[in-house]
Amino acid sequence: MKSILRFLSVLALIVIWSCEKETISEENIHSEKNRVSNHRNGNSTGGNELIILYPEGTTNFEKQQKRIEYGVTEYKQCKCADENLELWIFDESNTNNINIEEKKETAKVDEEIEGTDLNPVISIPHDQLAFNFNSFGVLDDAVTKVVALNQSITIAVLDTGINYHYDGFSNSFLYNASEDACIDNNSEELFGWNFVENNNDPFDNHLSMHGTVVSHIITSNLDSNNVPYQLLPVKIANENGNINYFDALCGFQYATKKRNIKIINMSFGWYNQDYEILNKFIDTVEDDILVVCSAGNEHQNNDHEPHFPSSFESENVLSIAGLSGSFNTATGPSSPGAIGLSDFSNFGNISVDVAAISENIPFVYNNETYYYNGTSFSAAYASFYSAYHYQNGMSAQTLKNQVIASSIYIPSLFKIKHSAFLYVD
User: Which of 5, 93, 259, 418 has its C-alpha lying 20 to 30 A from 394's C-alpha?
Assistant: First the structure.
């Protein structure tokens, strides 16, 4: 009987997270060879970790008393993001004796704690094809690409960071943190933050440069349309594409506090578990910040099996599916019948708003062209599209409505809410 109970308690700790099926192929390599595995094997770690959100106004003394009460061994804070957000770590040597779900349930009814979640890992996959580049950046070079004065719109990209040496970026496009710089861990913020290593260098060392490609889609389209902006790179994923949920929360809160922040791009996700703290944070900025999310790449109905954060019901979440079809830059879609959802794209008449291009997206690196597929990149196009339609003083809801209203209706997209896509020339 004890063995059965122990087995059931272990099962209760398992959270299945998605590995989004982004694909990448080189010009002369078949895409099938480079398709990322469709297994949902994002690991759930942090069996001895608990995320805690204190109520506003909780003193340092009160926080320390609460840690003692729960038997916390170590804790981690988000000094550059939210002083009320903490990661509690319990003694690993006694993990077998720690029922983390029980501690979570106790914290949920604790009137001196505002919110609590587990700390699983979200995975941004990388292809077997990896770029050959230096594994770290040179900040002196990056500073030359910081804007002299922040413009009317800041776009934050929560991802694997950014390779600011990439020659596809304009001369100045990075956020200028000179007036609101965070100082932590002997680092002073310059233009973004690395929450993986807790320093001021959000360099993209991901094997397929996921964050760099997402950022380049946004910036190159804004540049070509002469839209003033600055990009805020927020590194929350390591070189393998793994994101600790706590780092994602820290990154989100950090971004919301920056000047002129209007759009946050989140090209990652997980299934089924509606983690309350991120939902709370998104709701808090419901009037001010549009959160653009990829719908996922499992060819599933998100109405039946929710994919988060794209399935959060917040009014400021814009969920983007992947679009397949051919286009003519002069006239738009070549024909309505040629347009549809990508075969890998998630969908949902309630939970997915519109679609954007997601296939054969070119990225030139070291004079070679690579082609990317996935809703991560659809979300990037949607972030550009949203910035393009933004006007000073717009609320997040008004901006979302404007984006949807300017999309193109196509009956073949009947599996998503507005049966429409964002046309990007």
Answer: 418
Spans of all domains in the chain: 46-119, 139-421
- DSSP H or E run through 242: strand 242-244
More confidently predicted of 142 and 406: 406
Which CATH class for the 46-119 domain?
alpha beta
Find the helix packing angle between 100-108 and 60-70, rounded to 10°. Answer: 140
The structural architecture, per CATH, of the domain 139-421 is 3-Layer(aba) Sandwich (3.40)
Cα-Cα-Cα-Cα dihedral sign, residues 201, 204, 206, 210? positive
> pTM for the complete prediction?
0.88
What pLDDT, on a 0 to 100 scale, did the predictor assign at position 130? Answer: 62
Return d(Cα 119, Cα 122) in angstroms, integer: 10
Can 46-119 and 139-421 be said to share one CATH topology?
no
Q: Could you count the other beta carbons within 10 Å of the beta carbon of residue 14?
A: 9
Terminal-residue alpha carbon distance, the chain: 64
238 falls in which pLDDT band (50, 70, 90)?
very high
Tell me if residue 68 falls in helix, strand or coil.
Answer: helix
Hey, what long-range contacts does 163-168 have (CB within 8 A, 24 or more apart)?
A: 163/133, 163/137, 163/203, 163/204, 163/209, 163/212, 164/137, 164/203, 164/233, 165/133, 165/134, 165/137, 165/138, 165/141, 166/209, 166/212, 166/216, 166/365, 168/216, 168/220, 168/363, 168/364
Amino acid at 268: F
Question: CA 300, CA 341: separation in Å to the nearest integer?
Answer: 12
Assess contact for 243 and 376: CB atoms under 8 A: no
Contact 357, 372 (CB under 8 A): no
What does DSSP assign to residue 54? P
